[in-house]
Amino acid sequence: MEQKAHQFNPGNQRWLQVLGISMPLCLSYLPIGVACGILLHAAGMNFVLTFLISILVFSGGAQFILASLLVSDAPISSIFMTLFFLELRYALLGSSLSKYFRSSTQGFVLLFSASMNDENYAVNYLKFATDKKWTPRDALLVEHYSLISWAGGNLLGGLIGSAVTIDLEIVDFALTALFIYMIVMQMRSHLSLIICLTSAVLALFFLTLTKSTLGLIIATLIASLIGFAIENWARKHSKDPWVLKKLFRPAITRHTVEDRQLINEQAKQEQEAAAAEAAPLSQEDEEK
Amino acid sequence: MASLNLSVASLVPSHHNLTYHLIVILVAAVAAFLPRYFPMRFFTNRKIPEWFNEWMKYVPVSLFTALVVKALFVDSKYQLFFDHVSAFGSSLTIFGHASYLIAAVFVAIVAYFTRSMLSSVLVGLLAVWLLTFVL
Q: Residue A37's closest CA among A170, A171, A167, A169?
């Protein structure tokens, strides 16, 4: 395996190594990018605009939603609010990566955060957590490789959009399928199932009440706050609360990145506890 | 071909021109950039408060559920959608888009067992396409 890698990359160039790491990501971005380009073309954008938006927004979910918002002629304020709340999850991703960028310049953080995305975040987070040699520069390279493949896919989709005839009722479901996939991936505990059901009921209520996409935002905020409150309450009242227990997962997929992170943290805490127990005397001396 | 192109063209509201699209792109870019940059910038030299992390953890699942519910159960006029299905010789009234509902179950099952985004979406599209012949 290493010999083969050496054949492809005789000078052991870093950019080629990083390209190898981001290749699976780039390959899976291409077809989704093409689908997104076709959808945006159907919503009235030409291929130049599709290309532009794929670079500036660089988010599959947001671009798919934008296509359906354009078709349903949503007002600009509603477009902004929907996208803003959809992208608000990046606040979490960005802040969880921020500890690796303590020594980077402001300009670098700006450049990095502008092209951060769910998938390249997953790759970078894993590399930062497991590979000591992984630098912010490598992480930025991963983002740019994935951006190139995403924008290329979008451009291609925008170009062939006029030649390909698609049944919009079927393609429209691609978006829903994508979100169902993301929900299933987020299902980790009983609590996430409860939040899911709460959000569903709230969304039905507020969508019919507000008659606009504002209902989505209200439902999201209330449901996530309820989840936050339940978790807080359960942690206070029980040591091993039922709502935070894991849902059953197929054996091959039982450990997600978050799980491994949790296991590492627990191991670290145990080590620290053991170290503290082993040297209680010296600590007491220091305190005196 | 021509008729299909017409049906596509009719989906685009008539007042959408280049200026409108450029404004939309600008708005979308700002909406995408703000939540990416500022929290990251803010937390590169501060500690993340626990409550913020805990709250943000549940935003994606809530939002995605709300979006799916909108697609499955609500029509374009924001009213609850009831589908009339005639299958096996009897006609039924179902809450939600019947073909989308069935396809959604397939997508969830495939996503659960394979964890592959591409195959989940493809199975979903295939299911909707096949169901157009049945329902």
A: A171
pLDDT in tens, A61-76: 789 889 888 888 888 9
Which two structure tokens, joined as six digits, stand for B46?
């501060």
- What are the Cα distances from residue A156, in Å, to A36, A38, A46, A160? 10, 8, 11, 6
Q: Distance between CA B106 and CA B127 in Å, rounded?
A: 8
**Nearest CA-CA distance, residue B130 and chain A, Å:** 10
CB A66 within 8 A of CB A36: no
Cα-atom radius of gyration of chain B, to the nearest Å? 21
DSSP 8-state secondary structure symbol assigned to residue A243 = G
User: Residue B70 and residue A203: Cβ atoms within 8 Å?
Assistant: yes
Give start and end residues of each alpha helix (H) in B1-135. 2-9, 18-43, 50-56, 59-73, 98-114, 117-134
Helix (H) or strand (E) holding A19: helix A14-42
**Spatial separation of the C-alpha atoms in residues A32 and A39, rounded to whole Å:** 11
Would you kindly state where each structural domain of chain A is located, as residue ranges?
9-186, 249-279
Q: What is the H or E stretch that residue A26 is in?
A: helix A14-42
Average pLDDT, chain A: 82
Which residue of B41, B60, B113 is in closest CB contact with A109?
Answer: B41
